[in-house]
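Onboarding guide, step 5: your first structure request.
Type a short instruction followed by the sequence, for example:

Predict the 3D structure of this protein.
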Amino acid sequence: MSYLPPIVPESEVAVDRIFDLLKLRVQSDLDKNERAEIKQLIGIYPTPAQAVVWRQLIKRKRDEAMALGRKPPQ
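The system replies with structure tokens like these:
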């Protein structure tokens, strides 16, 4: 299993949205529109296991940027 998605969103809005979509993916299969959106944002529709790992990594990256006193790139 890859430890990062093929594309890692950089804008604050995209990071927040993928964070929410990955949470939903962990819980269940997404509908057609959400699948398309997640593929657009990270390049692939993840398995629930991938969604767990990727969500944690994206959260860590976001938290590190905020701890350094800067917002993630927009």
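Each response can be followed by summary notes, for example: The chain has one domain: 12-67.
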